[in-house]
């Protein structure tokens, strides 16, 4: 038994403070991760000011259902290929904006659901522009380390998107 009557209380207090500080740090990290994940979604939007190199790791891998061909399944892209995909998208779609979003974060993973709209103003997949505003949903999971996204997995309403631009009937 300790000779100091308050030693147990002090020990418990310091332990609880340590747990609380750890929880606050994790919470702040989760919020930062969510912010980084939302910046990645913003790369697709018109007028985005996000520098991909500021949020994507040099060894970044993007697993995306491709809209540039009708292959089934995910295709892996490195950072350079991903930037080219985004640039290609922006030549065909203007006024790309986020309509709605929600996020969940745990550990180093963030899940983001977005609803997006865009004007189809340029040729895409050989299809002439419809000049219509189209909408679609996407869900993106990102893995973050040291404030940068290492890998992304994306699933989205590819078929609804392709139908709206006339690729599918």
From TrEMBL:
Keyword Signal included in the entry's annotation: yes
InterPro entries registered for this protein in UniProt: Cyclase_SnoaL-like, NTF2-like_dom_sf
Sorted UniProt keywords: Signal
Signal peptide positions on this chain: 1-25
Family matches, as PROSITE patterns: PROKAR_LIPOPROTEIN (PS51257)
Matching Gene3D superfamilies: 3.10.450.50
Top-level taxon in the UniProt lineage: Bacteria
SUPFAM superfamilies in the cross-refs: NTF2-like (SSF54427)
Pfam family, one: SnoaL
Record's protein name: Ester cyclase
């Amino acid at each position: 038994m300790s000779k100091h009557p308050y030693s147990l209380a002090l020990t418990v207090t310091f332990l609880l403070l340590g747990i609380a500080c750890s929880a606050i740090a994790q919470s702040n990290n989760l919020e930062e991760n969510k912010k980084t994940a939302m910046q990645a979604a913003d790369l697709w939007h018109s007028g985005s000011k996000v520098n991909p190199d500021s949020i994507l790791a040099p060894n970044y891998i993007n697993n995306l259902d491709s809209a540039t061909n009708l292959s089934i399944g995910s295709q892996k892209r490195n950072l350079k290929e991903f930037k080219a995909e985004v640039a290609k998208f922006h030549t065909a779609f203007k006024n790309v904006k986020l309509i709605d979003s929600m996020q969940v974060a745990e550990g180093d993973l963030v899940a983001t659901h977005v609803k997006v709209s865009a004007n189809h103003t340029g040729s895409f997949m050989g299809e002439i522009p419809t000049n219509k505003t189209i909408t679609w949903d996407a869900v993106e999971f990102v893995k973050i380390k040291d404030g940068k996204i290492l890998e992304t997995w994306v699933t989205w309403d590819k078929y609804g998107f392709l139908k709206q631009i006339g690729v599918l009937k």
